[in-house]
Design brief:
The protein is mostly beta strands and about 150 residues long. It folds into 2 domains: about 100 residues; about 40 residues, no CATH class. The protein has a 5-stranded antiparallel beta sheet, with no helix packed on it. β1 and β2 form a beta hairpin. It is elongated. The chain starts with a strand and ends with a strand. About 5% of the residues are buried. The model has no long low-confidence stretch (mean pLDDT about 80). It comes from bioreactor metagenome. This is TonB-dependent receptor SusC.
């Protein structure tokens, strides 16, 4: 099931707008590059910690032919997630202040993008499981600004 939420409220010149969406009711197989190296040893752990103890080979290699790469339900997880995609908090100056300088509207705001993800899949973007392994992960962004209307 796919779902979304939009919410907006204004009060005494302040505004808060939210946009979120999610998916639920399905499973995912964690078969991406992040989980493949040495089974339960996540890709980032291998890079940070080095090779597992007792490995005589100085590079990652397919020498060990054990059950680490065999598909099983061990790697199946709840694929559902919720993302808060956009948030904006703003303040519009009162008209009696802006009319003195012949401006129609002045709004100060701060916006955030990709600020929150709720998922059982940790360390990765649940929409794109390869994000962050060999490419850039989905970043959080906070911006601010002033909108002026004449």
């Amino acid at each position: 099931m796919q779902y979304g939420i939009t919410f907006g409220v204004e009060y005494k010149g302040f505004n808060l707008d939210l946009l979120g969406y999610g998916l639920s009711g399905f499973d995912r197989m964690l078969d991406n590059k992040y989980y493949q190296i040495y089974g339960e040893r996540k890709y980032s752990n291998v890079l940070v910690d080095g090779l597992p103890n007792g490995n005589p080979h100085p590079v990652l290699s397919p020498v060990y032919r054990n059950n680490n790469f065999i598909t099983s339900d061990y790697w199946v997880v709840d694929g559902g997630y919720f993302k808060l995609r956009n948030v904006e908090l703003g303040y519009t100056l009162p008209y009696m202040l802006t009319e003195r300088i012949d401006i129609g509207k002045v709004k100060l705001f701060i916006r955030g993008a990709n600020l929150l993800t709720i998922s059982r899949i940790k360390d990765l973007d649940p929409e794109n499981l390869d994000a962050g392994v060999g490419n850039f992960p989905l970043g959080k962004t906070i911006t601010g600004g002033v909108s002026v209307s004449f």
